[in-house]
Specification:
The chain is α+β, with helices and mostly antiparallel strands and 59 residues long. The chain has one domain (11-58). It is 20% helix and 14% strand. The protein is built from 1 helix and 2 strands. It has one helix spanning 11-22, and strands at 31-34, 55-58. It has a two-stranded antiparallel sheet with strand order 1-2. The protein is elongated and about 50 Å long.
Length: 59
């Protein structure tokens, strides 16, 4: 598996990648690095305490 920084890919690269994924010749995964809670925690009841999920998320 190769890793690329999304900022280094051009529009043409992204179009080619989308085409390969549609043809099932490639798989693409997005890794998100953040210091913020992601996804945003949703309170289901008042005073509910939730620990923020800080770190890497793989889609």
């Amino acid at each position: 598996m190769r890793r690329y920084n999304i900022a280094d890919l051009t529009d043409d690269d992204l179009r080619r990648l989308r085409m390969l994924v549609r043809m099932e010749r490639a798989a693409a995964h997005i890794v998100v690095r953040t210091d913020y809670a992601w996804p945003i925690p949703i309170q289901t009841r008042p005073r509910q305490w939730q620990e923020p999920a800080i770190g890497d998320a793989i889609n």
